[in-house]
Amino acid sequence: MNKIISFFIVFLSSILILSSCKISKHAIRKKSVVDSSAIVHQKFVLDSMANQALLDQYKAIWNPRIDFETFTCKAKMRYDGKNEKQTFSASIRIIKDQQIWVHISALDIFNVARVLITPDTLKMLLYTKNEAYILPYSELNNYIPVSLNDAIMAAREP
User: Fold this and answer.
1) Of 155, 157, 153, whose CA–CA distance to 140 is shortest?
2) Does 13 or 114 have the greater pLDDT score?
3) Phi/psi class of residue 97: alpha, beta or left (left: φ > 0; alpha: ψ in -120 to 50)?
4) Residue 24 to residue 75: CA distance in whole angstroms
5) How high is the pLDDT of residue 15?
6) 153, 119 in Cβ contact below 8 A?
7) Tens digit of pLDDT for each residue in 120-154?
8) Which of 100, 109, 131, 141 minimizes the number of CB atoms within 10 Å of its CB?
9) Rg (CA), the chain
10) In what order do the strands lie in the sheet containing 99-106?
11) What is the per-residue pLDDT for 142?
12) Which of 91, 90, 78 is nearest to 37 (CA)?
């Protein structure tokens, strides 16, 4: 009986000690949300000789292009729009002057889309909508605000 009472006292005191520990609360700052779809990039304007000198200094780093035959990379991206937030990753493979292959997945688990860009067409599979598209560049320019040309497919200097 004495052992049961001592066990009960130890049990209650341990519960009391553990429940009395308080995790300190930190002030939470609200992040300012910037609509990334509304950002408009303007061309860089040279307005002084200092800017030109700075450009000349960094031109040696900027101008050299990497000569490659194949290129593979993985990118993680986040989109913050007016009504939605999306995080996704993309696996990108490029064969120089031939094709660009992009696989987009959410949480590295769910397939979202696959895109194959060749010099004359764009082929796209949208897994979320069970749709497939094959578009020539002339028709693709009706859907997107950017005009596509051969400079996208070729890794050449302008």
Assistant:
1) 153
2) 114
3) left
4) 36
5) 72
6) yes
7) 888 999 988 899 989 887 777 677 666 665 445 44
8) 109
9) 28
10) 70-80, 85-95, 99-106, 110-117, 121-126, 131-136
11) 73
12) 78
13-37 burial, b if ≥16 CB within 10 A, otherwise e? eeeeeeeeeeeeeeeeeeeeeeeee
Would you state the torsion angle of the CA atoms of residues 59, 62, 63, 68, taken in this order, to the nearest 10 degrees?
Answer: 160
Listed residue (61, 118, 110, 59) closest to 93, CA to CA: 118
Structure tokens at 27: 């002030």
Length of the chain: 158
For the chain, give the secondary structure using H, E and C: CHHHHHHHHHHHHHHHHHHHCCCCCCCCCCCCCCCHHHCCCCCCCCCCHHHHHHHHHHHHHHCCCCCCCEEEEEEEEEEECCCCEEEEEEEEEEECCCEEEEEEEECCCEEEEEEEECCCEEEEEECCCCEEEEEEHHHHCCCCCCCCCHHHHCCCCC
